[in-house]
Amino acid sequence: MASIDGQMRQLASNHYKTCIHTADTSRTIHKDVKHILDIWKDGMGIVCVQAFHNLIPAEAFTREAAMIDAIGLPRLKNEKCGMYYGVVASWNSKLKRRLGAFLLYRALRIFITQNEIQLKPTDLK
């Protein structure tokens, strides 16, 4: 998870690296690229939910951190927890997780409304 611009840049970067890897198998595979290749090998695609738009970076990072805490870092591919900014940084863990759960619920509603669009290798050519 990340801010929308950052999320799209990261997704595009991982897809680019994945495409390069499929063309040149002599390169070492980054674990994120390997994860994408494994998903594609299983016949699935990558889903990018654009839930929150026009946020300043501090707000986006705070929301990302709350959602990571709500899900739990061990259940994600993220290497570290997010950073909290502003008044939310002073909240206790329970309130931060509740905020994350609320934001995930809002993202789910947006996901359901937008329909699922999976990005597959054929979409990148």
TrEMBL record:
Signal peptide: none annotated. GO terms for cellular component: cytoplasm; nucleoplasm. GO terms for molecular function: DNA endonuclease activity. InterPro entries: ANKLE1 (IPR034998). GO terms for biological process: double-strand break repair via homologous recombination; resolution of meiotic recombination intermediates. This is Uncharacterized protein.
